[in-house]
């Protein structure tokens, strides 16, 4: 917000100052550079800073999202890898003795691998 009656030659932006339990606003103490504003309070500068903040927030949000996705994948692997190992061992044991339907065990292993998004040679 701009000051109603700005001092000549100084930035016309109103700035808030906290003091004690109450604060107050007064005119910025910097000298005006362009269009009656100092460099910090010029609308173009404020707009550029806001765009930088939004871009940084978007990058941080994307990073958090990617980290969460990776953590979820790691957790699925931690839980399902022992199952893959057990089923692989079961498949090899039963394939030799032909006591169980190996195709069913292979199907389960394939479903687990699809859930983990791991390559076939895992």
Mean pLDDT: 81
Outline the biggest β-sheet.
2 strands, antiparallel
Q: Helix and strand string, N-terminal first? A: EEHH
Give the count of helical stretches. 2
What is the approximate shape?
Answer: rod-shaped
In terms of structural class, how would the helical and strand content be classed?
mainly alpha
Indicate the percent of residues in helices.
55-70%
The strands making up the biggest β-sheet line up spatially as 1-2
Rg: 32 Å
DSSP E strands, number: 2
Low-confidence stretches: none
Strand content: 5-15%
Alpha-carbon distance between the two ends: 62 Å
What features would you describe in this structure?
It contains 2 helices and 2 strands; from the N terminus they run ββαα. The protein is mainly α. It has a domain at 1-38. It has a two-stranded antiparallel sheet. α1 runs antiparallel to α2. The longest helix is centred in the middle third of the chain and has 55 residues, at 43-97.
């Amino acid at each position: 917000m701009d000051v109603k009656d700005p001092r000549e030659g100084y930035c016309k932006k109103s700035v808030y100052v906290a003091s004690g339990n109450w604060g107050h606003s007064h005119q910025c103490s910097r000298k005006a550079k362009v269009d009656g504003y100092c460099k910090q309070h010029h609308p173009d500068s404020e707009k550029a800073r806001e765009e930088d903040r939004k871009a940084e927030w978007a990058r941080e949000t994307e990073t958090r999202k990617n980290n969460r996705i990776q953590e979820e994948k790691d957790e699925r692997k931690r839980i399902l890898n022992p199952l893959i190992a057990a089923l692989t061992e079961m498949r090899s044991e039963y394939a030799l003795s032909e006591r169980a339907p190996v195709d069913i065990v292979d199907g389960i292993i394939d479903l687990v691998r699809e859930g983990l998004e791991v390559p076939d040679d895992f």
